[in-house]
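B., you asked whether I could sanity-check this one before it goes into the benchmark set. Here's the sequence:
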Amino acid sequence: MKGITVRQATTADMPSVAALFNAYRQFYEQPDDLRLATRFISNRLLNSDSVILVAESEDGHNRTLTGFCQLYPGFCSVLAKPIYTLYDLFVAPGARKTGAGRALLLAAHEHARTHGFARLDLSTAKNNHAAQALYESLGWVRDEVYFSYSKAV
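And here's what the prediction gave me:
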């Protein structure tokens, strides 16, 4: 792999992003369902209700999407400003340790900054130590004050 570039995904990227998203879901122990992944990613891209950044590697004359991150806009009432939730970050197993994850996180930060967002938030599995080390190396701070809760509807 010669180099990694990060850019915002377009509808032309949908099949490749959907395949990565399907692998991401399987990483989190969800069943293989490319149709579901394609429908979900297609809706995000067509409705512009998230920002999907893709890492693209170049090997000779071939360019391949090797990872993605997805940012969902929201708001922080305390700050009275918009924030992004970085909900998805995934790098294909064969492209790990190439800097793709780091490049995606840096691009997400720059995208948020240039679009006037006050903060990026993310959650990760407690046992995902590799991701935690990457986040912390880039200045992300683990929340030691608040607990997160969720409830299925």
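One thing to flag: The longest strand covers residues 62-76. Otherwise nothing jumped out at me.
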